[in-house]
Design goal:
Length: 115
């Protein structure tokens, strides 16, 4: 049986949905996901080998910071990088540092990231 949609009582306006907000400024290209509990970046590389090499360079940053993102190779040249602090169940300063480190690496390598 389909669930009935809830409606505000007559004469009362519905409350606008709150838009999730990151606890820190997001670096270029990063987007807020999962109701504000994670951030992700999607990018395209020139080919499969560049994508795999980039994953290995990201691993170095993650190891240095002791904070590891979820990295997905989608198709043959597209990456999706997602981070959140699993132990806290939310975004923390570790995610901010990781996103900044990844962004710096990508910019140094000439990747264009949307604002």
């Amino acid at each position: 049986m389909p669930r009935a949609k809830s409606r505000p009582a007559k004469g009362k306006a519905a409350k606008p949905a709150r838009k999730a907000k990151a606890p820190f400024p997001l670096p270029a290209g990063w987007r807020l996901d999962r109701g504000g509990k994670s951030i992700s970046l999607r990018l395209e590389t020139k080919d499969f080998l560049e994508a795999v090499a980039l994953i290995n360079r990201l691993a170095g940053i993650a190891e240095e910071l002791e904070h590891h993102p979820d990295v997905h190779l989608e198709r043959w040249n597209q990456l999706r990088i997602t981070t959140y602090s699993h132990d806290a169940g939310k975004l923390t300063d570790r995610d901010e540092r990781l996103a900044q480190g990844i962004t710096e690496l990508l910019l140094k390598q000439g990747h264009e990231l949307s604002a």
